[in-house]
Amino acid sequence: MKAKLLYITNGINGPGGLERVLSIKASYFVDHMDYEVHVLTLNQGDAPVFYDFSAAIQFHDIVAKGNPITYFLNYRRELRTTIKKVNPDIILVCDDGLKGLLLPIIIGKDRPMIYERHVSKNIAVQKEKTSGIYKLLNAFKFKLMDVGGSFYDRFVVLTNGNTKEWYLNNIQVIANPLSFFPKESSTLLNKKVLAVGKQSFQKGYDRLLQSWKVVAAKHPDWHLDIYGTINTSEGLDSLSQKLGIENSVHFHPPVKNISEKYKEASIYVMSSRYEGFGMVLTEAMAHGVPCISFDCPYGPSDIISNQKDGILVANNDIEGFAKGIIQLIEDDNLRQEMGRLSRESVIRYFPEKIAQIWDTLFTNLINIPA
Questions:
Q1: Same domain, yes or no, for 239 and 228?
Q2: What is the per-residue pLDDT across 72-83, written as a single tens digit (0 to 9) for each?
Q3: Which of 49, 89, 186, 280 is the most buried (most CB within 10 A)?
Q4: 263-282 pLDDT tens trace
Q5: Where does the chain have alpha helices with state H?
Q6: Owning domain of residue 62
Q7: Is residue 187 part of a domain?
Q8: In what order do the strands lie in the sheet with 291-294?
Q9: Which residues, listed in sequence order, are joined to residue 346 by a DSSP beta bridge?
């Protein structure tokens, strides 16, 4: 056995990107690289995991409830108890909340600790226009996040762009591994455009629907399928009706076998206002599906080579986004060529390539001979 790893996260029973990435990495480390891997969750109880994890991984769940003070004391006590029991060589924290950033302070740091940041700092911004007080509170929170992050041995972000958000000396870029690489690509012949992700301010589906109104007026026989956790408070159903596109836009809950949906698509669209990486882009590209994305902070510009294996559109350029979709709908040769190059491009995200980077980091931190 190389070493013992303990991942600390909130939960692995949801369909989010963090959960998917953790299932891939943790399983690869234990099945292919001789690591012992433990995963510690918070208040998950008997809820089943959403993605498949290796049977060799050992799972732990702690309970923390009550008022803020009781919650904090229970959380700290249960964490310390589990860490003492597992006795890991390295602790990896996958918690995008403030408590995750402050864990070295909360539990004390007596061994190497790595923080994995899966989202942009902009996750704190949940509306278009904000007051001065709101901005001031966010600025204070961001500063506190930098302080917490500085206590880790390594602070891992997913893209080069993400490094611009943090004022840290311990930062390192390690991309997410590819979830799958199917033997067959999409034919790119179906009149389907796909988007994947929960309904939220971050994902910018309101911007996508406005763009789709332009597309649907010119190509009414094409359809837009959006898969992700439904959030009625986003008002996307009513917006699609208001825009007159309800017959060509379809909202679906998350599905486990999303690969089948990529295979059916001819174009993938990402309308996010901000991202940590944009794993859906690499997944679509692995299926040979060309992607159109707003050039948001951060991720798309690391993944897509504009006008080569996909199209990047200036952030919030709704008209430009619509033009990009229409261009790929109308130019079959361009769509096929971008799809081919997309599939070649994402080879750099194969799990074995990303795992080697992690392996080097682990070895350096605990001085295990390679």
A1: yes
A2: 999 999 999 999
A3: 280
A4: 999 999 999 999 989 999 99
A5: 17-32, 68-86, 98-101, 103-107, 132-149, 205-218, 236-243, 258-264, 279-286, 300-303, 318-330, 332-345, 351-366
A6: 4-177+350-366
A7: no
A8: 249-252, 223-227, 192-196, 267-270, 291-294, 310-313
A9: none
